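Re: duplicated header lines in exported structure tokens

Our pipeline writes sequence and tokens for each protein into one text file. With two proteins the header for the second block appears twice in some exports. Here is an export where it did not happen, for reference. First protein block:
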Amino acid sequence: GKAIFFTAISGVMLLIFLLILLFIKEKPEGYDEFVAKYFPYISVGKRLSMAVKKPANWLLGIYAGVINLPLFVFGGLWGKLYFFNTMQFSMIHSFNLMTTLFVGAMVGFLFFGWLSSRFIRRRPLMIAAPLFGALLVGVLLLTADLSYDTSLVIFFFFGLTVGAQILSYLMMMELNESFIAGEAISVIFFSLFGLAILTMPLFELLLGWHAKTELLMQTHVVQVQHFHFAMTVFLLAFGLAFLVSFFLPETCSKRQRV
């Protein structure tokens, strides 16, 4: 089973590689002439400095980082412990739930990108997504015994909420000059992974601290209530994303004159 699965994954990756090799170009025809005509030469250091000095880039990075937290926690480090050990789902069901989170994120990228361009506004969706995420956290905190089917739905929509981070990248392209787009992306990724480095240990700290205060920890089993206590980090993260979205300008899906 595992051999077939990994063989299939390798085949898909090889197919993607071949498609990129055949159809993706490094740059469009006439690009060098266009850049030479309309953009003066600016060193990499200067471009990076320009990107770093834009507060909006950091705000977009913070938004992408905090709204991505459920994916880091349940799609990675703590997913197996929560679904298999704590919620007592089978290994296959636990794997399915972790996969559902990523599927939801993939759908979310498409959904939020399409919807924001369809209605020509991005900020209202950036405000709504963390509110919806906080609602999902509330459902988890108020429900101690979730069925497998209900968990599939909840974690699909958790992933969908994570997909709202695509709005950060779209706004970044619209708030920065095209010749510093790469440097602006680096600022967002620096913020995203920097926040992951900070928040993941915080989740572990809260989980461990609450577990150690419970007599049940003597059985060396992390209980649902321990995870619920640590999930307050999600509420803080979504609250921060909600606040950050109010400090971002509305681009109306157009590149701004900056």
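Second protein block, exported in the same file:
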Amino acid sequence: KVISLFVDEHKKVYYGNLYHGFCVYDPNFKFTRHNILDEIVVEITPYRNKQLWLGVNSAIIRFDMDLFHTKKFKINTTSKYDVTGIIPENDNLKISTFGEGIYNFNLIKEVFTKDNEQMLLSSKNVQCSYQDRQQMYWFGTYTNGVDLVDPNQKKFNHFSTSAYNKQGDNVVWGVLEEKNRLWIVTNEKVLIKTNQTQVAKIKNSPKNVIYSTIYKDKKGIIWLGTINHGLFKWDGKQFIHEKTSNLKIIKSIYFIE
């Protein structure tokens, strides 16, 4: 079961497997190395100098893509929680967690600090994080919808998704910017946010679908993964169900382009 995924420019695939740890597949040799790290890797984020940063339980790991060297940095806490998001920003990483909110990791000093926006979050259970073109942060939470933080203006906005779901849940699995719109993926619906206040549901959305992830390819096509009906493509007007054989559960999407 693949739960995180990254493909480099040589089409080498790095992924987190629930049962086989951190793995690398080399298409040139058609060979997979399993259990390079005996960790459940929830998040994979590329960084400069041929590095990957991996989000695991209560820690982040620096992985050298050439030498396969690793170094683990454990967050100083007694709680156990997953690192669910890593956003690089100059010499800092913004770390989101499921259980402890947001941390900053200084890449020069190699130390963690609590984020200044921590007190603004509506929930410490952050499931996804995203930085848009205006350098604002969007944090999708497990029970409280989406939090928007503008670090430059020190402004904070909260958006609840419960009114748009039949079950009234406020779970957000993914956030993605596309043109002047923001896509917000909840359990049951895909929402479009065009500004600070206006929100719309996608018309003719598939029924009885539970969404799990969102991805935009280089052609600008939006792809949505689900945990019960495989893969969907948005063609600009409607969702198209892509045939994925018997594959029903999709947690990560990445196209080799």
